[in-house]
Amino acid sequence: MTESSTAVPASFDAAATLAQISDATAHLLATAAELTDEDLRGPSLCAGWTRGHVLAHIARNADGHANLLNTAATGEVTPMYASDAQRNADIEAGSSRDAATQLADLRESAARFAEAYAAVAMADAWGRGVVRVPGAEPFPAFEVPAKRLGELLIHHVDLDADFTPAHWSDAFTDRWFALTLERFQARDGFPPLRLDVEEEDEVYGVKAAAGDAEVLTVRGPKRALLAWLLGRASGDGLVAALPEGGRGPLPELPSWG
């Protein structure tokens, strides 16, 4: 049994987030339904993965997140994945399946996730702790929906099939921009940067103060900045302003994973 519990923030809206997940799932399924066996053997935007790998990952991720939600609903701990090695093996095993099988798996795993979501909502157990792999540090179940939404929308882009960061909603972009800056703030190897979001007239600092004029400033639309930070875009349309004046190249960033 899991005993850890965290207060659910007032900003968490389970119904609204589920609606976003359902919409993102439907859009992904529509894209997947158009992909042929040959398409699935083609490269994705994830280095070393075909589109088949991406779809297998999305399906197994749905089951993994369903495990976390079932943990919260019942109190019986089921990790998201038995291990990282098993996660990787399952993705590899599913990557070469034909398009019809991939599509059926996506639909069925999404339905299992939705069922688990309803169970944790019924139990009102969003504050209960869940774990990614055995022995890992617990995190609260209310973080699961945002994680699943990110998997759907970011990996949909990875399919390289006419779905781009331009399709991301303002709410998703705002949420994931904040999450991404928080994650990279704690990462070794990330260069000090100021990120100037042009439509907000707001500057954010990563590994540097927002007002630090001694570090490189990268300016552009928020979606374009987020896509670049996540490694889902080359940075076309972004401007890197050097502290001493003029423009320079965009810095190399560590991978999101």
From TrEMBL:
Q: Identify the keywords attached in UniProt to this record, alphabetized.
A: Isomerase
Q: Name one GO molecular function term.
A: isomerase activity
Tell me what this protein is called: Maleylpyruvate isomerase family mycothiol-dependent enzyme
Please indicate if the UniProt record lists Nucleus as a keyword: no
Every Mycothiol-dependent maleylpyruvate isomerase metal-binding domain range: 23-159
A Pfam family matched by this chain, by name?
MDMPI_N
What top-level branch of life does the organism fall under?
Bacteria
Gene3D superfamilies, per database record: 3.30.1050.20, dinb family like domain (1.20.120.450)
